[in-house]
């Protein structure tokens, strides 16, 4: 099997190229997909402010490395140098394939970060509704700078590179928006090093461009503000692109100090047709897919197993799943079929979804209502219907007719063997004539 083409990571120096030079298609961006999937991800109504002039930008620039504090100051947490596993792993659920790197190992230098969102005072609510330039200016007045998005992620994940600031298992009660707002009161919503409230109180400006195939000058915000639990947006890897010149009521910031880490996210987006069917299924691919099936589907007595159709499904940019038709051929009965879904990482497929059991007939895979929902028609001698596959941030749910029975084969009538001619023998033997 050929490995799936994945996103390419580039580590670039900050500020060597204007944001407008980034490649992308403004008409089809990931923020639109997020809005469709999750209303909490959509930016609130904003008030535009004039973009800063060159002189104003210089006045609010981050202090130089020599001016930056090398160790944590009052109210700050020191983050030691170490390796960041950026983004999410290939098969993680959930994952936002058009927003997140695929776990490259990035060496990060030490820096310090505010323990709380600005004004870094647990007795005061976070300051929201600032533009990026205003946030930069306020950090500079405190002798600090805005964090880069990878510094923010490093502080959130900690030395163990956990999915959430508190560990790898999601707790919907860990970082809800406090009401009334009181920073530092959510005991679980903090990192192992003591950084508080990175989720639930607001998104936070960073110094990094939104390097995900957009050419409109958007800047990355990290964190999350919402009234409900959101496993996608509460992960340390999650981010969003926002207009830096707009003040938005759900966006605040926190400050960092120390020598800035120059690594940035540059994630090219690969946009393919939602469904591409392979001309054939190589024997090597069949072998790998069979190994990924449940044990009772890897071998069935008296049945020859294979995969005879393979479709490549692209529900989102930078995402590819394999939809394959599993085939069972009994020696003396009609073949039967089942639809299964696989994710391939490092050339090894993992089954992520599938039907309860086989049916007598299936048609071709087709797009249903969106790229994230596809269907296949099914039939038996007495029933017709369809199976629908729905994608959600790396997971796939299956909707199928109630008449599809669980199992690994169909109880069909065996073929009747051909009848042999019958030779009638005389009932009585006559003596031979002499």
At a glance:
With 434 residues, the chain is an alpha+beta fold. It has helices at 30-37, 54-59, 132-141, 149-157, 283-292, 295-298; strands spanning 47-48, 76-79, 82-87, 102-108, 111-114, 145-146, 202-209, 219-224, 239-242, 246-247, 251-252, 255-257, 275-277, 303-313, 321-330, 336-345, 348-354, 361-362, 366-367, 373-379, 384-392, 395-399. The N and C termini lie far apart (81 Å).
H/E series: HEHEEEEHEHEEEEEEEHHEEEEEEEEE
Structural class: alpha+beta
**What's the helical proportion of residues?**
10-25%
- The shape, in one word, is elongated
- CATH class of the largest domain, anyone? Alpha Beta
Give the termini separation. 81 Å
The CATH superfamily of the largest domain turns out to be paralog of FGE (formylglycine-generating enzyme)
The CATH architecture of the largest domain: Alpha-Beta Complex
Radius of gyration: 29 Å
Which regions have little confidence, pLDDT < 50, spanning 5+ residues?
1-70
The number of distinct β-strands equals 22
Mean pLDDT: 83
Strand fraction: 25-35%
**What oligomeric state do these chains adopt?**
single chain
Q: Treating each run of at least 4 consecutive H or I residues as one helix, how many helices?
A: 6
CATH overall fold name of the largest domain: paralog of FGE (formylglycine-generating enzyme)
Largest sheet: 5 strands, antiparallel
Structural domain count: 2
Widest sheet, order of strands: 13-14-15-16-17
